TrEMBL record:
InterPro entries: Flagellar_put. Keywords: Cell projection, Cilium, Flagellum. Pfam families: Flagellar_put (PF12611). This is TIGR02530 family flagellar biosynthesis protein. Residues 1-23 are annotated as: Disordered.
Length: 128
């Protein structure tokens, strides 16, 4: 006698993601650099390196968004004139900025910068 076997439909498992299809987690980044870039809303806004951010935090240097905007504009202007690395001097801070990369490389307190030698700079920006 034939026992009747019924074939059950096989439910396939979902196809695994390829590496390209893996959904990325949304990470909330509230670093100083991200907040700064979001506040400025400038296409040529300056990025602040991790080193510069640490220096600013350690030394208690604060630069408001209006001053960052003015610095960004002056660095963009210097870049148009062929400046690649500049020294930006403000009333309370001195910044070494790569105009080529739109990146603040390091930051010093204005008093600390008095006795320093800055090398590899081909332009200086004095800010009021």
């Amino acid at each position: 006698m034939n026992k009747g076997f019924q074939i059950q439909p096989i439910h396939s498992l979902p196809k695994p993601f390829s590496k390209k299809e893996i959904p990325k987690r949304q990470v909330t980044d509230t670093s100083f650099q991200t907040v700064l870039n979001n506040q400025l809303h400038l296409p040529n806004s300056l990025k602040v390196s991790r080193h510069a951010t640490e220096r600013m935090d350690k030394r208690g240097i604060e630069i408001d968004s209006a001053k960052w905007k003015a610095i960004s504009e002056k660095v963009a202007e210097a870049k148009q004139k062929g400046i690649t690395d500049s020294l930006v001097i403000t009333d309370n801070a001195t910044l070494v900025v790569s105009a080529k990369n739109n990146t603040v490389i390091t930051v010093l307190d204005r008093n600390e910068a008095k006795a320093q030698i800055f090398t590899n700079i081909n332009g200086t920006i004095l800010m009021d």
